[in-house]
Design brief:
The protein is mainly alpha-helical. It has 16 helices and 5 strands. The protein is globular, with a radius of gyration of 23 Å.
Amino acid sequence: MLPSIHKKLVYLDQSFLSAACLEADNPNSQNEVRIFSKLTELKVRQRVFVVVSDVHSRETSAIPDEYVGSRRELWQFQNDLADGSISVDWDEVFVAQWRRIFANQDNSNSFPASDIGLDNPHQFQVGMRIQLTNHWRPKLHRDNARPRDAVNEAFRRVFERQLENMPSCEDARDCLSYVRELWYKNIRQGIASWRQRRDLHLQMEQIVKELEAGRIPVMPPWEAPAPFCRVVGEAVQELDEESTLQQWLVSLEGDSANLCACVRIRSVLEAALLWKWKTEGATVNPKKFDIRFGQSRQNDIDHISTFIPYVDALTTDNDMRNLCKNEVVADELERFSCKIFSKSNYDEFEAWLDALLAESMTHNVRVHHREK
């Protein structure tokens, strides 16, 4: 069995990857190019593991058809960086974290890499390995993609509805309480919906028996499943379903610390964004809306709330990093040791990588002396 070494896990966002891959000749992208070179060297030395996720698939697939060459090039670049190991999406992490809470496992190891779909990123690699191309991922997202304007209009309606129903809030912390109540409500509705579908399945068995006996059964009412119905089912799969659901409902009545990490992080980012909309207003410019509140920003929230507990470093854009420095958001994120880098502090990212390179060289010298 190959030994494990502790590699640093690094999540690179789409803006960094695009600059390093598609804009490498641009003078404004030279920081990213230099950082990428150091990351590549650290990968060869097996000191870092680059995390790429299905969020990348969605963002890459959104590149317009007239730039299909760039779309393919960027996906190949990202996939190679991660050695073909693509991490899971937010909803799968939601399920994994809740299942660990249900099992009451030791919190000292509460965020294993298996949660994000990585078997063992710390394993020492020897020789050649088979690498998946994962070309189906961007294609799947491309086939299922909705027009960006339609997606952003849906986000705009969500913000407006939340503001319309918001109680009197004096500050961002009040807004956070409101947003988390919405999350509690969504999960409770998901639990109720899953129970209803389970009971409906049992009722259908009885209906079949009634029909076979020549009797006309009473048909139960049917409702469309709630948005969280599917993930609730996955979270309780192969567990004692009813007692687990009851445990879940009890946890939603308690302190917000009982929430899984990805919901805590996501809700605080959503609250900060909603409060920003309330206090500063929203732009009518479609491109600016996309960046500040719409699909682009929601993808940022996706990758930050998913990966902050699992990776050692993560890149994002300047606006998102500033949102993470918001007092309410920072209070939540300080639970985790992940470093957040953006273009405005890439010098700190480089310094961190330089320290890892120096450390790896020192380690190699020690090994060489021991072998002598």
